[in-house]
Amino acid sequence: MSMSLIAKAMNIKVGNPIRKLVLLKLADNANDKGECWPSYQHIADHCECSKSTVRDHIDALEKAGLLVKENRTGTNNGKGNTFNVYHLKLDNPMPTPSTPPMPTGGTRISHSFEPVMEPKTPYPLPGASPRNRQEKTKPPTKT
Q: Region labeled Disordered — which residues (predicted)?
């Protein structure tokens, strides 16, 4: 783990908070040369997002010139698993254009301008009997 890479990653604007988190996780995993090889799943687990979201943000970071992704084949005469090696390029980042954040596969955002209608009566407590719930919400009757 290279603290200088983490500090550099922290100071780079990437235009999206999840993308920033993915970049920080890569910097956290990198050696002093800026190389690391975590799996998409490892990054997704630590960043609390989906593998497809990680893949999308890594592609965006690569397009921005902040890393180079190298595909490698494992052992066993090239029949092993393939994995990516990431080479971080944080010394001279290209300026990030001012774009709205990229929607992610694991995040649902509503852009509706409709008002949220909250219930007027509180939700019943777990374990409360229907009779008790009625008595709590029913106004007292006049005798």
A: 71-143
